[in-house]
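hey so u asked for the seq, here:
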Amino acid sequence: MTDTPSSALATETIRTSSLYNEDLAPVPTQRRIWGTYNYAALWISMSVNIPTYLLASGMIAGGMSWKQALFTVFLGNVLVLIPMLLNAHAGARYGIPFPVFARASFGVLGANVPAILRALVACGWFGIQTWIGGQAINAMLIALYPGWEHFPLGPAICFGFFWLLNVLVIVRGIETIRFLQGISAPFLLLIGLALLLWAKAKAGGFGPMLATPSKFRTFADFFRFFIPSLTGVVGFWATVSLNIPDFTRYARSQRDQMVGQALGLPLTMTFYSFIGIAVTSATLIIFGQALWNPVDVLSRLGNPLAVVIAMIALLMATLNVNVAANVVSPANDFSNIYPRRISFRTGGLITCVMGIVMQPWKLMSSYGSYIFGWLVGYSGFLGPIAGVLICDYFVIRKKNLSTQDLYQRGGLYEYSRGINWRAVVALAAGAGVAFVGLFVPALKALYNYAWFVGFAVSFLAYLALTSRPAPVVEAAD
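ran it, C-alpha cells below
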C-alpha cells in the first residue's frame, strides 16, 4: 500500500462543493515533494527564533539554574513531539490540511471551532513576532540615530513597518515562505553564536556564566515553578502540533516527515535554548540583572555597526518564522469558515489584523506574562483539541478517512447539521477542567498542567461519548 490519495479527490462533486477551495484541496501525489531534509530544515528554521530564546531565558530570570532550564526545554519538546507526529500522519497519508482533518472528528462545520481557536492563538503569535521585529528595527534606528530614542511614536512606527513587510510576504504566497525558510535560519543561528561568544568574553568564560545557582532552596519550590514551565514548553509548539498536517500534506512519505521532525525539533530547540540560557545567565554578571530579551542585549553591544548587522539578521529570521509558523495555519483556518470567499491570502490578511488586536506588547510585558499567562493559558484550549483529534483518528477510525466526504455536506462527517456535538462537549470538558485552576486556588495544579489535563480529559470524554465506532471506510491509500 502506498500513501496516495484516492482518485476521487479530483471529481467534480468535490470541486463544486461549498467546502472546497484550491488552498484546502488535497495535495496530489506529484506535488508531494518534501523529504526528510525539508522537514528538518523547517524545524530548524522555526526553532531558531526569538521566542525560543525568550522561553529559555525566562526560566533563568524566574530562578532556574542553567541545567534545570535546559532539561525542562528538552523534556517539553520530546513530549510535544508525540502529538506532533500523531497528527502529522493524516496530513501525509491523505494530503489534507488541519482544518479539513478536523472535519472528521468535529464535523464539516464543527471543524471551525478548533480551527478558529487555533487561528486566534496563531494571531497572538504573529503579533508577538511582529512586535519583536519592530523592537529590532527600533534598536537599529537608535544605534544609527541616537535621537530616535526620544521619539515617542518610534516603537509604534517600527512595529507598523515590520507588520507591512509581513503582509507583503503573505501576498506573494507560499513559495516565498519556502524560499525564506531556506536562507534565513542561519542568520539567527549566527546571531545566537555571536551573542554567546560576546557573553563569554564579557563574563570571563563559561564557568562564571553558568555558575549562577538555582534560587530554589527545596525540590518543592523548584517543582512549583517547573510544572508550569514544562507546560509552557509543550504549549510553545502545541499550536503547530495541531496544524502540522498543513505541512505534512506535502510529504513524500510518512518516514520522511517523521524522521525529519524527530531530527529537527528537540535538538534544535535545546541547542538554541542553551544560547538563551547562557547569555541570560551572563547578563546577571555583566549588567547586574537578567535581560531575558535578546533585543535588549543586542542594543547594548556598544558598536553601532554590530547592532545594525545583528538586527538585520534578526529581522530576516523573524520574518521567516512568523510567516511559516503563524500565518500558514490561520490563513487555512479562516479560509475554512467560507472556502468559496476566503482564500489563503485573505485568511493571511485577517491574521495580520488580528495580530494587532491581540496587543502583543502586553503579552510580552514580562517573562511571567509570556510563560505563565500566554503559553500555559492557551495550552488549556489546544490540549483538548489534540485529545479529540488523536482519539478520533487513531482509536475510533483506525486511521481510515473518506477524503471525498471531508469536502461534502450530507456525508459521513455531517453528524448533526454539520457539527459533532460529542467532540465539542469533549473539548469543552477538557478546557473547563484545565481552567478551573484559575478560579479555585486549591485546584491550581490543574491549570499548571493545562495542556496535559485538557488532553487527557477530552480524550477520555470523547472516547466515552462515542458509544460505538464511527463508520470506518476503506483507506485512501
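The radius of gyration is 22 Å. The CA atoms of residues 47 and 269 lie 5 Å apart.
lmk if thats what u needed
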